[in-house]
Amino acid sequence: MLRTVKPKNARSKRVLDARAPKEVEGPRTAVFVKGTHTGEVLNNVMKELMALKRPNAISFSKKNAIHPFDDNTDSLQSVEFWAGKNDASMFVFGHSTKKRPDGLTFIRLYHGRVFDMIEVGVDKFDSMTDFKTPKATPGHKPLMHFASDLFDSHPRFMQLKSMLLDLFNSEAIDSICLPGIEHVISVSLSPTPASLNTANSAPDGARDTTKPEELPKVHIRTFTVKLLASGTRIPRVELTPMGPFLDLSLRRFREADPEMLKQAMKRPKVTKQDVEKGLGQKKKNMEVDEMGDLRGRIHLGKQDLSKLQTRKMKGLKPGMDQEDGDSEEEEEEPRRKKNKTR
């Protein structure tokens, strides 16, 4: 169970509300951490990944002796401590050893605790400086493309896809104009082995037993988008290599705790103010106009007006019409007598 922190004053309550789960999450802040041993290739890889992540990226210049997969106490506590200090929910840890050279570990956090991790190895790297082409503007939202069915069926590639989407994703948007798409990040796989084609996914609750050597390599390619005239309303799109180009191989992983996963997938309750602003689940016969006012439509059944309760007035009693007629005739007779005396 996750520990719930109760605020002591109004200021701490505002801070906790700002960090609480939201219906529309903002961009994740990623921290790039170096291990005790990193080579030139791994340093350049982390540098260019951070360039794609800016401005939501923080770099630690000093080397840190942490081992997320080997040590389950001190290293994870250090990651959780840095996440709380920097308000970050994702880490990219680079470490190189003789057994696992040029290793990148993606760590994702939830509620200040480590959620899941996955380690990949950098087999090949082409820097941005190798391509003498225009670069995308920092801070623009990339277009992500995953070219394989394993990203939707195999648990290891599903986890990697989720990691990459959280890493490069920025603020949520409803629509975007075509000139706003400046670069594309394409993720593809090597030829899939026959063993994975026959059994793509593991059954629910079962642990994936596929060896890392049997999994195909992951190819990450980054291109800039160029829109050209086509004579129609839809422009002709050309992709220009921008870099970086990465060839990755999957290594170790750690799945999320089932109880933590259940809480992370829970959607927060939508307040009345959010509904008035047009957020949350759309309710039937309710809409928000251009001025931000909440308008609703009410459907009523057929009403029986005979049973409607009215005020008990003397003039509405039955039989009063006859009494009124007799009184009018009595009033006319004295008037006639007065006219005769004149």
Automatic annotation (TrEMBL):
Single Gene Ontology MF annotation: rRNA binding
Q: Which family does it belong to?
A: Belongs to the RPF2 family.
Tell me which residues make up the Brix domain.
28-259
Region of interest: Disordered: 1-20, 264-342
**Pfam families linked to this entry:** Brix
Task: Output this protein's name.
Answer: Ribosome production factor 2 homolog
CC terms in the record's Gene Ontology section: nucleolus
| Basic residues composition bias: residue spans | 1-13
Compositional bias segments (type: Basic and acidic residues): 271-305
Record-level GO BP terms = maturation of LSU-rRNA from tricistronic rRNA transcript (SSU-rRNA, 5.8S rRNA, LSU-rRNA); ribosomal large subunit assembly
Fetch the InterPro entries from UniProt: Brix, Rpf2
Q: Which organism is it from?
A: Amanita muscaria (strain Koide BX008)
Name the residue ranges with Acidic residues bias: 321-332
